[in-house]
Q: What sequence folds into this?
């Protein structure tokens, strides 16, 4: 048995509820709200093989808080599983515009607590890179708003070589890029764009797979930017 | 059979998780009330910074919940319903609590109740003083709210009689504290300084008390400006600022207007009970003056202990318990956080 299986107590549970799924398979719930896509889905992981059972995606940058939990439940229903059967949760931790990102992360953290399973953080750009088929070194780029992009660079095998960073779009030394930020700023980045546009369930689980070999890292957002807040200067006078 | 209600609060700078037991007779018992505050992180900005608060909520949510279950010696699986602040409050802050609450509801397979933060401030009093008489009046005073409410049923029927037209009372405290060189948040240091000062030293204005002003509305912006003007005048004349007298006189003006309007509302509507809650309810002069005036008018005054008055999860759990007991329908899992949720909507 692979070493990482030891981290899932639930992997030893009886077969009854997972008929047709090999016994050494773990059931993973994946969540990402780092981009305008509200994404949740279920996948099984057997060794390095990821197979997606169900995936729910809505593109709406203002509906992360409303839709993420309903998406989780809809995906479970379609996959024919209950949340109690989930062995682990994978959550995209950005980078991403703050508010929506936190909706997914608070959801993942509370689900993990409520279900008594681990939640594994994964860089959302890595999740994009995990399913990109570039065949050469490439970028994963998402929209950071305020005319900036979040980006990271990967080698031809999809290993991250630089980033994540946040900055104004400009040529970054590579000519192929995945992610919605690449589509939005293809010209400024001087790139040819490839799929996927947003993190997918398959990409999230594949990118998190190496993390399953250890205790999960804390579920901390990759904010990259500091909060907008200024300390007050000298007290303003009411009389001129 | 009694039921366990978990309450989650994240509308401003306190991450709160409370656990209560709803007994069959409708009484509500406090089991745990854990709060993680980000107030220290806001101090240098002189006010709550929404993004800083939201970040802190996400970090604190699960650890705070864990502490509440440990304190109550309960398991997550003991929970029968989840209540969460759906509004009003800071959008990004509310979103963290609402998202977590939905996830707990889904994970545990129990109903969700999105409830009103303001109603929670009133409901919390039942944890200390038992069921609320129907009707009663409630005066909510904190850094974020100043409202006079008629409560016919805490679970279903709350009407606003008046509210502040500009600053919340607590906001005025913060601003005056800054003018006097006292730390943030301003409530406790001003209260402390005021105890050493003369409340009649300076006649600061009583806002919204003219004959043509709305009877039950409040205004604290003019008072705040008057204090700043007075202090600047004294500075210009090279006088030393009598901080204690200014604090006492300012605090007297706030307490005078709040209690006068609340007692007048009680008398006019023939209501015999006044509940004062919210962070500023802990202020010694406000509760002292309210006690005097309520006694004189034959009105029962209820003020929850300070720990219950400030934002916490227990108040949301308590309100959730009353909503459950009233048989109100559960919330859908696609509810939104509503930063401007009106007080007459007790649950969404
Ligand atoms: Zn409050």
A:
């Amino acid at each position: 048995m692979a070493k990482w299986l030891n981290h899932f107590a639930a992997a030893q549970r009886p077969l009854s509820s997972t008929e047709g799924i090999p016994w050494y398979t773990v059931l993973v719930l994946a969540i990402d709200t780092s981009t305008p896509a509200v994404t949740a889905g279920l996948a099984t992981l057997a060794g390095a093989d990821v197979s997606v059972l169900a995936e729910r995606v809505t593109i709406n940058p203002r509906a992360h808080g409303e839709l993420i939990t309903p998406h989780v439940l809809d995906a479970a229903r379609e996959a024919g599983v209950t949340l109690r059967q989930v062995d682990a949760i994978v959550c995209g931790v950005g980078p991403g515009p703050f508010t929506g990102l936190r909706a997914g992360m608070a959801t993942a953290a509370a689900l993990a607590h409520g279900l008594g399973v681990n939640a594994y953080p994964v860089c959302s750009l890595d999740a994009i890179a995990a399913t990109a088929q570039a065949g050469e070194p490439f970028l994963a780029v998402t929209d950071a708003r305020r005319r900036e992009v979040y980006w990271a660079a990967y080698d031809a095998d999809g290993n991250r070589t630089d980033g994540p960073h946040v900055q104004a779009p400009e040529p970054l030394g590579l000519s192929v890029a995945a992610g919605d930020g690449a589509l939005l700023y293809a010209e400024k980045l001087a790139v040819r764009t490839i799929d996927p546009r947003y993190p997918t369930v398959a990409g999230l689980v594949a990118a998190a797979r190496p993390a399953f070999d250890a205790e999960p890292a804390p579920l901390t957002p990759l904010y990259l930017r500091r909060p907008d807040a200024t300390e007050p200067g000298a007290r303003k006078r009411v009389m001129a | 059979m009694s039921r366990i209600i978990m309450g989650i609060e994240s509308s401003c700078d306190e991450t709160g998780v409370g656990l209560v037991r709803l007994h069959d007779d409708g009484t509500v018992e406090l089991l745990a009330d854990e709060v993680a505050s980000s107030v220290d992180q806001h101090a240098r900005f002189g006010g709550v910074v929404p993004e800083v608060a939201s970040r802190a909520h996400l970090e604190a949510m699960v650890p705070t919940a864990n502490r509440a279950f440990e304190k109550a010696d309960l398991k997550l699986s003991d929970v029968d319903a989840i209540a969460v602040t759906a509004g009003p409050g800071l959008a990004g802050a509310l979103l963290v609590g609402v998202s977590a609450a939905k996830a707990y509801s889904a994970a545990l397979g129990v109903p969700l109740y999105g409830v009103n933060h303001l109603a929670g401030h009133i409901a919390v009093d039942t944890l200390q003083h038992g069921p609320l008489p129907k009707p009663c009046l409630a005066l909510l005073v904190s850094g974020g709210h100043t409202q006079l409410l008629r409560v016919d049923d805490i679970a279903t029927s709350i009407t606003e009689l008046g509210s502040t037209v500009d600053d919340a009372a607590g906001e005025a405290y913060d601003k005056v504290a800054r003018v006097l060189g006292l730390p943030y948040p301003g409530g406790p240091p001003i209260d402390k300084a005021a105890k050493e000062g003369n409340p009649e030293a300076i006649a600061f204005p009583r806002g919204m008390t003219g004959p043509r002003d709305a009877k039950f509305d409040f205004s604290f912006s003019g008072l705040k400006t008057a204090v700043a003007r007075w202090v600047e005048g004294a500075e210009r004349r090279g006088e030393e600022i009598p901080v204690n007298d200014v604090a006492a006189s300012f605090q007297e003006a706030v307490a005078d207007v709040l209690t006068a309007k609340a007692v007048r509302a009680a008398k006019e509507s023939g209501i015999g009970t006044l509940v004062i809650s919210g962070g500023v309810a802990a202020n010694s002069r406000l509760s002292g003056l309210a006690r005097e005036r309520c006694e004189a008018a034959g009105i029962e005054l209820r003020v929850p202990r300070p720990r219950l008055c400030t934002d916490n999860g227990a108040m949301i759990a308590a309100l959730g318990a009353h909503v459950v007991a009233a048989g109100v329908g559960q919330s859908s899992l696609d509810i939104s956080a509503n930063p401007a949720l009106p007080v007459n909507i007790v649950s969404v």
